[in-house]
Design goal:
The protein is mainly α. It is built from twelve helices and five strands. The longest helix is centred in the first third of the chain and has 93 residues. The chain is rod-shaped, with a radius of gyration of 57 Å. About 25% of the residues are buried.
């Protein structure tokens, strides 16, 4: 069934049809374009707010100088969640851009195009109507002339008939009147023929206008309105398609959020906390029962206060040497792998250069020389960095040994009081007390050595679990041997308590500078040797000295576990330990 056309149904309503189409073209801009523009503004504001929210709650990545912090699965999941939310904001921005910069402009362009075509159609319809009006005007003009000629003919014929019946008028006059009547009759016949022709022409123009021209004009307006409606439907479909695409991407973002949520692993996070905060230290041993002894009254000193207070918690700001050592070992392993890879590449390039040199037909060997120089420079830089890491590893291991020595000396056992008692009694007040003090100190040392022997075994097991490389295991065994030698030296120092009270003062001098008020260190025989600092050291450990590159020191003690006791060669004469690996004997 054919749909009704405006040309047939609305042949007499052209002005109304034209007004309808013009109004709908303006409606496209006033309603549709404004709607999509405001919707785009809403999408843009939402995307802007969402991005601000993501930026406000984005976790800050903490960076260290030489090591990167491994984030927990919880933090990584939340970071991924925020990233996907940012992608969703991006989709809303794309949707806003599609609505404001594409659809709105297309609507405005289409509305202007419809108005222009409507204006052209109005001009064409006006021209057709003017042609039809001209045909009507010509018909009316000829009809008036035809009517006048008819009346003139009838008037002349009536006068002739009256004159012919009247006997008073001469025959010549009657003949003139008859000829005039015949003339008017011929004029009437001519006007009648012209009127008939014009009437036929006007009817033809009228049929053509109402059956062809006007319906064609109205049909063009109908086609234009149909095109407008189709365009509106297409615009809405495009807007819906853009929303569906945005929703499709946002759904994928939600899937990414779901994956991020499912990736949270509480066991992994707790293990990471252990790895990050683990120091490698062990809890202090049990506090031994102390027998009260009648000794000479002595006043409290800084050494007594220091030894009577055991620190059971980690000091504020204390360096996590265990984690530092692990990170250095990882960097050493990484550098060793890169050096091995670069060495292989160097050998391959050298072989290529040698081959091309022996066989010039293959090409110019100088093409590989620049590449070989680059690889060689890279390997040299890696070797320098590796040496620097090895020095840092030596320093960290020395600090760990020094901390172990301090832990043993500061252990809250009876040996500390025995040290004070034997020192102040000097072995003169009561020989029995002195021997008893020495015996109890020896027993405590045995227990302490037994407990820290377990520490060494546990340290071995932990280090073997973390590092599988042979070279790293060898360094760990070196560290454990150093700890054993430290314990042995401490044992020897503490067994000699009853022989010399001054030896205790020497050990306590490493713990506190304030003890110089109550005790006097037994001066060691200087070796007349001097050291110069090759690298700077901050002196962050207890009992150590800070040093600058090129600073000279006088040696006052022997090298013990990588630390050597020195004295500044200036007016202060400050004494302390420095890492032996950072110095050179003059």
């Amino acid at each position: 069934m054919l749909s009704p056309t405006w040309g047939c149904e609305l042949w007499d309503g052209y002005d109304s049809v034209l007004c309808h189409l013009t109004t709908r073209a303006d409606y496209m801009v006033d309603v549709y374009a404004r709607f999509f523009r405001e919707k785009a503004d809403l999408e843009k504001e939402y995307a802007k707010g969402l991005r601000k929210l993501v930026a406000r709650y984005e976790p800050v990545k903490k960076k260290k100088k030489k090591e990167a912090i491994k984030e927990s699965t919880e933090l990584l999941s939340f970071r991924k969640f925020l990233t996907e939310a940012g992608y969703q904001a991006g989709q809303h921005e794309i949707l806003a851009e599609c609505l404001s910069k594409v659809l709105v402009k297309d609507i405005q362009k289409k509305s202007a195009e419809i108005l222009k075509k409507t204006k052209d159609n109005s001009k064409h319809a006006k021209k057709e109507k003017e042609n039809m009006d001209a045909s009507y005007f010509n018909l009316e003009k000829i009809k008036l002339k035809y009517e006048k000629s008819f009346h003139d003919w009838k008037e002349a014929d009536r006068n002739f008939q009256i004159a012919d019946q009247d006997g008073t008028i001469s025959r010549n006059e009657i003949m003139k009147m008859k000829m005039f009547t015949e003339t008017k009759c011929k004029s009437y016949e001519n006007c009648r023929g012209q009127y008939a022709d014009q009437l036929t022409k006007t009817n033809t123009d009228q049929r053509e206008y109402f059956a062809d021209n006007l319906p064609r004009v109205l049909t063009s307006l109908q086609d234009l309105d149909r095109e407008r409606i189709q365009f509106v439907r297409e615009v809405m479909e495009r807007a819906l398609h853009a929303e569906r695409e945005a929703v499709k991407i946002t759904n994928k973002c939600r899937e990414g959020m779901e994956e991020a949520i499912n990736s949270i692993n509480e066991e992994t996070d707790q293990e990471e906390v252990i790895e990050r905060l683990k120091t490698g230290d062990l809890p202090p041993p049990d506090i031994e029962f102390e027998e009260m002894q009648l000794l000479r009254q002595k006043k409290s000193s800084s050494l007594t206060r220091r030894l009577s207070r055991a620190s059971f918690s980690q000091k504020k700001g204390k360096q996590n040497l265990f984690q530092t050592k692990r990170n250095i070992l990882k960097n050493i392993e990484k550098h060793q792998d890169e050096i091995a890879k670069g060495t292989k590449e160097m050998k391959a390039l050298q072989l290529m250069i040698q081959t091309y040199t022996e066989t010039p037909d293959f090409g110019d060997s100088r093409n590989f020389q620049d590449e070989l120089n680059i690889v060689t420079t890279k390997v040299e830089n890696l070797s320098k960095d590796l040496n620097s890491l090895n020095r840092e590893l030596d320093l960290v291991e020395s600090k760990m040994n020094l901390n172990m020595r301090h832990s043993l000396l500061a252990a809250p056992s009876r040996s500390s009081d025995s040290l004070d008692n034997s020192t102040y009694s000097g072995g003169s007040d009561s020989i029995g007390y002195g021997s008893q003090s020495s015996q109890s100190g020896g027993d405590i040392i045995e227990n302490s050595l037994h407990d820290h022997g377990d520490v060494i075994e546990n340290e071995k097991e932990k280090e073997e679990d973390h590092l599988a490389d042979d070279e790293n295991n060898e360094k760990q065994n070196t560290e454990v041997n150093g700890m054993e030698s430290t314990l042995q030296s401490l044992k020897c120092s503490l067994i000699n308590i009853d022989n010399s009270s001054e030896a205790v003062c020497i050990q306590s001098g490493r713990l506190s500078d304030d003890s110089e008020e109550e005790f006097e260190d037994e001066p060691l025989q200087p070796s007349q040797a001097c050291l110069v600092a090759l690298y700077p050291y901050d002196g962050g450990e207890e009992g150590t000295l800070s040093m600058k590159e090129g600073e000279e020191f006088e040696v006052t003690g022997e090298d013990v576990d990588g630390w050597i006791k020195v004295k500044r060669m200036n007016q202060s004469n400050e004494e302390g330990f420095v890492p032996f690996a950072y110095t050179q004997i003059l």
